[in-house]
Structures are given as structure tokens and as C-alpha cells.
Amino acid sequence: MGAQEYDSQLLESVSVRRRRMRDAFLFGAQRGRRSVDERLGKLVAGIVIAAVLCAGCVGWSFISERLMGQDPSGSNPSSTPSSAVTPR
């Protein structure tokens, strides 16, 4: 093992130890609970994002259906009055 590898391994182990010490200081016995809470929060956020995307798709479908149903000239053949006389 070269000096370079030893130094990088030492720095990484110090980094891991500092992170663990910081987490123990900040969260104490709640470390396991914190990970469950984070996962639950991510699940709720995912459900909310999925609901917003679904609502957006439904809205887009509704708007595009309404726009495609319109005649560009402004007269819709399906909405002609029933009293219109057809030429013979």
C-alpha cells in the first residue's frame, strides 16, 4: 500500500467518523426514527407529485379536446340551430 492510498483511506475514515459523531450529537437515539421519517416524507412527496402530474394530464386532455372540437372559422357544425333551412 502506497503512501497516497494510505492518506486517502485515512482521510475517508476521518470523514466517516466525523459524520457519525455529528449525527450522534444531533439526533442521538432518534437516528433510526429519522431515517423512517425521511422515507415517509419522500413517499408523501412522491404521491403529491404523482397527483399533480395526473391532474395536469387530465387538464391538458380536457383543454386539447375542447380546442380540437372547435372549428377554426368559428362556426361549429354540431351547434347549428335546428331551425336552419337546407336548400332543395
From TrEMBL:
Keywords: Membrane, Transmembrane, Transmembrane helix. Residues 68-88 are annotated as: Disordered. Residues 72-88 have a biased composition (Low complexity). The chain crosses the membrane at residues 43-63. This is Uncharacterized protein.
